[in-house]
Amino acid sequence: MRILIKNGRVIDPATKKDGRYDILIENETIIKVEPNLMDEADNVIDAEGLFVMPGFIDLHVHLREPGFEYKETIETGAKAAARGGYTTICPMPNTNPCIDSKEMVEFLMKKEKEESIVHIVPVGAVTDEQKGIKLADIKGMKQAGAKALSEDGKSVMDTSLYFQGMKLAAGEDMVILAHCEDKHLVGNGVLNQGKKAEELCLEGISNAVEDIIAARDIFLAKASGVKLHLCHCSTADSVRLVKMAKEMGLLVSAEVCPHHFTLTEDDIFEDDSNYKMNPPLRTKTDREALKIGLRDGIMDVIATDHAPHSLEEKEKSIKDAPFGIVGLETAFALTMSELVKGGYLTPYEMVEKMSYNPARILGINKGSLAVGKMADITIADPDRTYVIDSSQFASKGKNTPFHNREVTGKVVMTMVSGTVVYKEGQNLI
Questions:
Q1: Among 14, 24, 71, 265, which one is least packed by beta carbons within 10 Å?
Q2: What is the edge-to-edge ordering of all strands in the sheet holding 175-178?
Q3: Of 379, 414, 332, whose CA–CA distance to 22 is shortest?
Q4: Do 119 and 92 touch, CB atoms closer than 8 A?
Q5: Do residues 157 and 11 share a domain?
Q6: What percent of the chain has pLDDT over 70?
Q7: 208 and 223 share a domain?
Q8: Residues 6+ apart with CB under 8 A from 312
Q9: How far is CA 183 from CA 162, 235, 256, in A?
């Protein structure tokens, strides 16, 4: 089977291409990337006016399976990923049972083969059952296919135990994906500590909740030699800390989520739990710092923290509803609208942060359109303006603050291992 993608703007930081090229694919593999290819093919895709990019890679998603299939399954989460242009996703381990052993990683890999239309890179827990008491089976999880470790949803508060886990992870060449939250400071906070929380008579979450643990984890990474990736950064001081870490030559990277570079606490007008996420929406000062951090290359990655919940759960008040929003199907449009159209990133820099850098951080052979690479490809219309309609999401979760928001930039096709798994206007495979 041969597929020829013609006339598109190929954007591939791995090969430093940004221009008009054609791509020839045979079975799973890219075999030519050249201008004006005339090779015969079984399927010719005209990408005139479209971006042709290495498939997006999301370092931070919640698929909820096993244990919370009413929120999301591996199958539905994978379909949501494909609609959003993602070809590889990294599910966090806070399921039930937790992904904390060789056997649970093998379970996830089996599910990938049977039920997922995108690639899955498992993330294992740092501690057994994420209880923070003893280390999980780090070596076994690595052998089974896990590339990273995370206690996502919380931080490992026992610093000594965490340090031991970091040293083990460094020895196994695994990345620590750090959720930075001091549980002793967060209390019953549900929104940013500021005027909006006060107006709604809700307990706030200070910037210090994140910043203190971010600083701790950076210095633990320095001492252990582990690759550290800070998840869902939301504060101006997180950006400063990452900049400091890089100036020190540490193996530290960081991500920003679209909701944090798009919204602030000022966008919350009522008791609507679709605006409740962790970390919370911060101030305009924080948002601008995140955007500048992405612009200046301090923040490496755009990730979604895709966190589906049921309608019933998110119909509750902000005080009582769970944290989190879905993000896989809106990330590209929000990035285009806020960062590219907003002048903070070029399309090339956007692809770095959504594909090339995540692959580099994980150490996986993806994020490239070079000859010989697997054909994981995202094709998108950068100028298409539309209104987000959460009722059309492939995800089980419809919990988003972006419903009815007008955006620019739409994924029209996603290809995984040379197979078209999503095409606009057609049912997902």
A1: 14
A2: 123-124, 148-149, 175-178, 227-230, 252-256, 301-302
A3: 379
A4: no
A5: no
A6: 99
A7: yes
A8: none
A9: 15, 17, 21
Q: How many CB atoms lie within 10 A of CB 16?
A: 7
How many domains are there within the chain? 2
Q: Are residues 304 and 405 in the same domain?
A: no
Side chain identity, residue 54: P
Residue-level pLDDT at 426: 81
| Segment 285-319, tens digit of pLDDT | 999 999 999 999 999 999 999 999 999 999 999 99
Of the candidates 363, 361, 366, 339, the residue with the CA atom closest to the CA atom of residue 350: 339
* CATH code, domain carrying 221: 3.20.20.140
CA distances from residue 302 to 116, 210, 229, 369, 413 in whole angstroms, order as listed:
22, 18, 12, 19, 20
Choose among 325, 341, 327: nearest CA to 409. 341
How much is the average pLDDT of 195-203?
Answer: 95
Residue 428 in this model has a pLDDT that exceeds 80:
no
Pick the closest to residue 100 from 136, 48, 151, 145 (CA basis): 136
Q: What's the domain range around 411? A: 2-52+374-383+392-423
Q: How many Å from the N-terminal Cα to the C-terminal Cα in the chain?
A: 18
Q: Write down the pTM of the prediction.
A: 0.97
Q: Are 173 and 363 in contact (CB under 8 A)?
A: yes
Provide the CATH number for the domain around residue 34: 2.30.40.10
Q: Which of 84, 8, 64 is nearest to 355 (CA)?
A: 84
156 and 305, same domain (yes or no): yes
Sequence-distant (≥ 6) Cβ neighbours of residue 66 within 8 angstroms = 95, 96, 97, 107
Mean per-residue pLDDT over the chain, rounded: 97
CA 198 to chain centre: 31
- Does the pLDDT at position 361 exceed 80? yes
Residue 255 domain-assigned?
Answer: yes
Q: Are residues 399 and 272 in the same domain?
A: no
Furthest C-alpha separation in the chain: 66
Say whether both 306 and 398 belong to one domain: no
Residue type, 332: F
Considering the domain architecture, whether residues 415 and 320 belong to the same structural domain is answered as no
pLDDT at residue 241, rounded to an integer: 98
Residue with tokens 């598109």: 8
The pLDDT value given to residue 429: 57
Q: Catalytic site residue 305?
A: yes
- The answer to whether position 367 is within a domain reads no
Active-site residue, from 211, 305, 376, 381: 305
